[in-house]
UniProtKB/TrEMBL annotation:
This is Oxidation resistance protein 1. It comes from the Eukaryota. Pfam families: TLD (PF07534). PROSITE patterns: TLDC. It is found in: Mitochondrion. Residues 163-332 form the TLDc domain. Belongs to the OXR1 family. The keyword Lipid metabolism does not apply. Its main location: mitochondrion. Keywords: Mitochondrion. One of its GO terms (cellular component) is mitochondrion. It comes from Pyrodinium bahamense.
């Protein structure tokens, strides 16, 4: 087996993705899932550089297991984020050295797998796989964070027959979440609190969310508008102070009769009023005595206003609203 040594500096990585795709195992007849860490880099030799992702070189590392892939991807992504916060020194040279690029590796993997499957079908006198069995198109496989038909796994409460959050709504929010929550197969979305299953109680709400530092708050008002926010820290009673981080954002899906299309309002860097909660209310956003989203302790009444924190308009159908449905979803690692 040929072995190659790769030296790769973090600033030379433009994009990192986790890819899962069907492959044919040489030692087995069945098709299995292969796990690949895919990087787009701006140089192969530390001398010639490109700056845009469209011209970048693609390199791929195969991982034995899904957990290894997720661990490696998270590590690389964390390093990329840390590197983006540092200024590049004038005259800095790169020591990146990659023996060869993998410009069409995914296309080759797909073609090989498809050919092997056709051969197996001919041997077994089976028809060629129909559309429902066809492997994903190359464009789908090259989407860095899209590895399975459903990128979001929802785990509701058994006693709730129908949840406010659907796969369609969750998919709309996915690309705005922190990168660690977007890796395919890494986490599932778990319904941790809803009055429909857990009763109307702020104490129960805080208790159910005590071990979850990243959650989605989703509200539907009596005018059928759906809106909410992403909370990057644990909801807990903190009277008299805001908390959270710049990962927080609020969003609105508008009226539920419309085709789901999310409008996301991230942090505007004007204040740090991300989250507020006490025994009387939950709130996101602030400034000038206004909040982007407030839900009172009765979990029935709330209000929404434009804020400096997120630069958002009124998220609900009106400044004061009545809650028809409320859910808080947490993210839990799979396996």
């Amino acid at each position: 087996v040929d072995q190659y040594e790769v030296h790769l500096e973090v600033p030379d990585i433009l994009e990192c993705g986790a890819v899962a795709m069907p492959i044919q195992d040489k030692d087995a007849e069945d098709t299995k899932i292969g796990y690949f860490l895919q990087l787009h880099v701006r140089t192969l030799d530390g001398q010639r550089f490109v700056q845009d992702i469209g011209n970048a070189w693609c390199i791929v590392f195969r991982m034995e297991r899904r957990d290894e892939l997720h661990k490696a991807a998270r590590l690389v992504l964390d390093c990329i984020q840390c590197g983006q916060q540092r200024e590049e020194r004038p005259g800095h040279t790169s020591h990146t050295s990659i023996p060869f690029p993998c410009l069409d590796c995914l296309a080759e993997f797909e073609a090989a797998s498809d050919q092997q499957l056709r051969q197996q079908n001919r041997q077994d006198r089976l028809p060629h796989p129909g559309p429902c069995q066809k492997f994903p198109e190359l464009g789908e496989l090259q989407t860095p964070l899209e590895a399975q038909p459903l990128r979001v796994v929802l785990r509701p409460v058994e006693s709730v027959s129908r949840t406010l959050l659907t796969h369609a709504l969750a998919e709309c929010l996915l690309d705005y979440l922190p990168i660690g929550l977007r890796l395919p197969g890494a986490v599932e979305w778990v319904l941790r609190y809803t009055p429909k299953a857990h009763g109307v109680s702020m104490a129960t709400l805080f208790r159910n969310l005590a071990e979850h530092d990243r959650t989605i708050l989703l509200v539907k008002d009596t005018e059928d508008n759906v809106f909410g926010g992403f909370a990057p820290e644990t909801w807990e009673p903190c009277p008299g102070r805001f908390y959270g981080s710049g990962e927080a954002f609020v969003f609105s899906f508008g009226h539920t009769a419309e085709v789901p299309e999310v409008r996301v309002y991230p942090w505007c860097n004007k204040n740090s009023c991300f989250m507020y909660s006490d025994n009387d209310l939950l709130a996101m956003g602030g400034g000038d005595g206004r909040h982007a989203l407030v839900v009172r302790s009765d979990l029935l009444h709330g209000y929404s206003s434009p804020t400096e924190t997120f630069g958002n308009p009124t998220l609900a159908g009106s400044a004061e609203f009545v809650v028809r449905d409320l859910e808080i979803w947490a993210f839990e690692e799979i396996g």
